[in-house]
Amino acid sequence: MSAISLGGIFAQEQEAVTSEAPSAVEGKKEEAMFTMSTTAPADVAAAPADAEKSATGLASKMLKKGSGSVKPLAADTVTVHYCGWTLDGKKFDSSLDRGQPTSFPLQNVIAGWTEGLQLMTEGEIRRFWIPGKLAYGDEAGGGRPSGTLVFDVELLSIKSAPKAPADVAAAPADAVKSATGLASKLLSAGKGNDKPTASSVVTVHYSGWTTDGKLFDSSVERGVPATFALNRVIPGWQEGVQLMSAGEKRRLWIPADLAYGENPPPGAPKGMLVFDVELIEFK
To answer: Which of 125, 128, 130, 136 is catalytic?
Structure first.
């Protein structure tokens, strides 16, 4: 009798497991098959109970799992497809409609995107409910949407930003220092002895950091070198690049008075700046 009872219990337990398994499998299938759409989702009006919520008020939900474990940092450049709606389901922007993904440094977009995309891995699709304070505000102007915004975002790729050098905070003892206060250090030698003059037009690749290691500009990140007349840039660049020959790479520590000052114009970094510069060519 006890054997029969045990057999009955096991049978019921097995039956319960079997009945639960298909729904779990179906959930995984749905996640694996999810594709981006420009149609407003059913939960556009409010984040569902199973959404992840952060201390800032950002809510999100994974719709499709990505690959690997690498997630972007704020300074990295990401390539994404996305679609955005207001809470009433009105679509206001979509890379899908343009048929072209978009790329941007993650620190150059709204706070909700900067925070949210750092949760994602390549290939992942995630839905975000971004409160107005992390978007364009509750009374946005200039044609921008107001209040909480909802985005579906697919992270296609991550391009890591140039990393700040270990000596970004101060020029090391072996740096060459000039009478103006500029410090520099040869990273790799160039070709020949010819060097640009103050009136030369130069083509360079560069990355620039503040002394706390924050990247504020980089042609390397954009993937396109910069060309400019040397007499049209900050004094620290004018002096520093004239030390270089074609093909050379050099690190420059530029004091504030040779850069943008301690009270720079809007959008410009203040204080001492550090640049890694590669002189590609000059004429």
So the answer is: 136
Residue-wise pLDDT for 190-230, tens only, equals 999 999 999 999 999 999 999 999 999 999 988 899 999 99
Burial letters 223-233, b for 16+ CB under 10 A, else e: eeeeeeebeee
Assess whether 82 carries a catalytic annotation.
yes
Is residue 136 annotated as a catalytic residue, yes or no? Answer: yes
Among this protein's residues, is 110 annotated catalytic?
A: yes
Look at residue 92 and tell me whether its pLDDT is greater than 60.
yes
Domain edges within the chain: 36-159, 176-282
Q: For residues 147, 109, 255 and 170, what is the CA-based torsion angle, rounded to 10 degrees?
A: 110
Which residue in 110, 216, 217, 234 is the catalytic one?
Answer: 110
Topology match between the domains 36-159 and 176-282: yes
The verdict on whether 9 is a catalytic residue reads: no
Q: In the CATH hierarchy, which top-level class contains the domain 36-159?
A: alpha beta
Q: Which residue of the set 128, 151, 260, 275 is catalytic?
A: 151
pTM, whole model, 2 decimals? 0.69
Is the model's pLDDT at 268 over the cut of 90? yes
Q: Which CATH class is domain 176-282?
A: alpha beta
Are 102 and 79 a contacting pair, CB within 8 Å?
Answer: yes
Tell me whether residue 93 is one of the annotated catalytic residues: yes
Catalytic residue, from 93, 167, 216, 234: name it.
93
